[in-house]
Write a structure and sequence with these properties.
It is a single chain. The chain is α/β, with parallel strands linked by helices. It contains 13 helices and 14 strands. The chain has 2 domains: about 120 residues, Enolase-like, domain 1; about 280 residues, Alpha-Beta Barrel (TIM Barrel), CATH 3.20.20.120. An 8-stranded mixed barrel has the order 4-5-6-10-11-12-13-14, surrounded by 6 helices. It has a 3-stranded antiparallel β-sheet with strand order 1-2-3. Helix 8 links the parallel strand 10 and strand 11. It is globular and about 60 Å long. It starts with a strand and ends in an 11-residue tail after the last helix.
Length: about 425
């Protein structure tokens, strides 16, 4: 039974230059491991609370010294020189110590950093890869690799809000491996850079997750550009490369209306717009097509998009078991975007994953816009048998760390990628 010798925390910077939290967990056996946690920009209202300092003289108030102090103080005192039989037991000790429903006292960033550092240290102590440790938590063997969805174009809070919707992603539908997925995506991304240079005669700009941020102000223009980039790469839209779209609709939903491309849409009209896009473009997944509290209309959206397009819940679900149960019972969606830091511990995220899988949903394991070069995400996506990954674009080292780790795992396991199409 692993026994913790010491725990320590450190404030570090994420990919946007904002502070985040790193934790190191040392076991009595001598095994020691660290983990860094990400931070989101487009956050759901039900997410666990990242504890920030609120001191405007440091990082505009985004400092994490309070969260770090909790790791180095209360958490260290509580957990040191104690043994935990399972990851769930360790996580429960952290959750009980915090004592709030949203982890606002100690901070979800502090709790999650310790949770993952402990998992990594236990895997090291047991001489097992981290993805095997995660698979043992799930209780299922690893039989396939997840299929990447890769940021191509970005707007919304990720791309300066030049366009309302947040991301258009390339889905390498014809790829049979992670390696082939990245080769195909590189061809499309390069073609997109060339296309923007020709079309707009301007240097290309990138968003938080490495997606291109073209100077357009209409959502449909991003979809058109994506199709043209696929064709420019010599590939067939819908055959070789499909599209996934993250709308993050809560951010352009005001006073009961959706404000999109200069139009004011009621929920049924918004659903009609999304159904129209899905019929005219090779869209296989629509994320947060409606606002996170527009529960009344999500079942209609899911029905209208099925069976060819996934209705993916992010802000709607916040990787929160209670919200996932509500969505299952109301048929609000059929896919979960799993972000561990939305709920704040590995054990609770695993419960969310199991609920979704037991309901027959697809699970896309996702990073956040503020990332670090830590690569535990890739081990989690493989170990928990995610159907898809969402790790950002194929630029920027904090994104490439995840893809490179997926390549390593693929080489070690020699497993096929999940079959396509997902909805079959």
């Amino acid at each position: 039974m692993p026994r913790i010798r010491s725990i320590k925390g450190l404030e570090i910077l994420d990919s946007r230059g904002r502070p985040t939290v790193k934790a190191t967990c040392a076991l009595q056996s001598g095994a020691s491991a660290s983990a860094s946690v990400p931070s989101g920009a487009s956050t759901g209202g039900a997410e666990a609370v990242e504890l920030r300092d609120g001191d405007p003289s440091r990082y505009g108030g985004y400092g994490c010294l309070k969260a770090v102090s909790h790791i180095n103080g209360e958490i260290k005192r509580k957990l040191s020189d104690r043994a935990y039989a399972t990851q769930a037991e360790l996580d429960r000790a952290l959750i009980d110590l915090d004592g709030t429903a949203d982890k606002s006292r100690l901070g979800a960033n502090a709790i999650l950093a310790v949770s993952i550092a402990y998992a990594r240290a236990c895997a090291l102590e047991g001489g097992t890869p981290l993805y095997r440790y995660f698979a043992e938590m799930l209780g299922q063997p690893i039989t396939r690799m997840p299929r990447p969805t890769v940021n191509l174009f970005s707007g919304g809070l990720h791309g300066g809000q030049q366009v309302a919707i947040q991301d258009v992603l390339a889905v390498p539908a014809s790829a049979g491996s992670i390696r082939q997925s990245l080769e195909i995506t590189h061809a499309v991304y390069t073609a997109a850079v060339e296309l923007l240079a020709v079309r707009f005669d301007a240097p290309w700009l990138t968003a938080d997750e490495g997606g291109l941020a073209p100077p357009v102000n209409m959502a449909e223009a991003l979809l058109e550009l994506a199709v043209q980039a696929i064709e420019r790469a010599g590939l067939t839209p819908g055959l070789h490369v499909s599209l996934a779209v993250d709308l993050a609709s809560s951010h352009f939903f005001r006073n009961g209306d959706y404000h999109l491309d200069g139009k004011t849409l009621k929920s049924p009209e918004m659903i009609g717009q999304l159904r129209d896009w899905a019929s005219r473009y090779p869209i296989v997944s629509l994320e947060d097509g409606l606002a996170e509290e527009d529960w009344e209309h999500w079942p209609e959206l899911c029905e209208r998009l099925s069976p060819g397009t996934l209705t993916l819940g992010d802000d709607l679900l916040c990787t929160h078991p209670r919200r996932i149960e509500k969505a299952i019972h109301s048929n609000a969606c059929n896919a979960l975007l799993l972000k561990v830091n939305q709920i704040g511990s590995l054990t609770e995220a695993l419960e969310a994953c199991r609920l979704a899988r037991d309901a027959g949903w697809m699970v896309t394991v996702s990073v956040r816009s503020g990332e670090t070069e830590d690569d535990w995400f890739s081990d989690l996506a493989v170990g928990w048998s995610g159907h898809q990954t969402k790790a950002g674009s194929i630029t920027q080292s904090e994104r490439l760390a995840k893809y490179n780790r997926l390549l390593e795992i693929e080489q070690e396991l020699s497993l096929p990628m999940i079959p396509w199409p997902l909805m079959a």
